[in-house]
Amino acid sequence: EENDFLGESFDVENEIQLADLVNDMNSNDSVMAVVEAKVTEVCQAKGCWMKVELPNGESMRVTFKDYGFFMPKNLAGSSVKMVGMAKIEETDVETLKHFAEDGGKSDEEIAQITEPKMDYKFIASGVKLKD
């Protein structure tokens, strides 16, 4: 059904495995892909980002193209399919602190963020929620 899609609808047939995406990200500047992933955390301010699990134990932060759409805040624990651009990029301290705050972390946890971090990032142009 059309209404399962947030943002752009896309062809789920083009899906690749998350592990393959991680390999591709490690060897390319950026990768266009359709993947399925399990959501571990959603921005509790307004659903403007989410984190998904990667098979290597890392997590990947997903933001939405042009902030064009938002996720339900109770999505953690569900799987989604998404299409977009993936890349590994440095996140500065200020942004990391902001994300930690949005994620409901304590002041102590936020204070421990003192250096930038290389992050897996995915800019989704469309997300398909699964029932």
Question: What's the layout of helices and strands?
Answer:
Elements: E1 5-7, H1 18-27, E2 31-42, E3 49-53, E4 59-64, E5 79-91, H2 93-102, H3 107-111, E6 117-129
Parallel strand pairs: 4-6
Antiparallel strand pairs: 1-6, 2-3, 2-5, 3-4, 5-6
Description:
- The chain has 131 residues and is of the alpha+beta class.
- Helix content is 19%, strand content 40%.
- Strands 2-3-4-6-5 form a five-stranded mixed barrel.
- Strand 3 and strand 4 form a beta hairpin.
- The protein is globular, with a radius of gyration of 14 Å.
- It starts with a strand and ends with a strand.
Helix content class: 10-25%
Strand order across the biggest sheet? Answer: 2-3-4-6-5
Enumerate the spans where pLDDT stays under 50 for 5 or more consecutive residues: none
First and last CA, distance: 11 Å
Structural class: alpha+beta
Give the integer mean of the pLDDT values.
Answer: 93
Q: Report the principal-axis shape.
A: globular
Q: How many distinct beta strands?
A: 6
Order of helices and strands: EHEEEEHHE
Short description:
The protein has 131 residues and is of the alpha+beta class.
Please name the defining characteristics of this protein.
131 residues; alpha+beta; five-stranded mixed β-barrel; 3 helices; 40% strand; globular
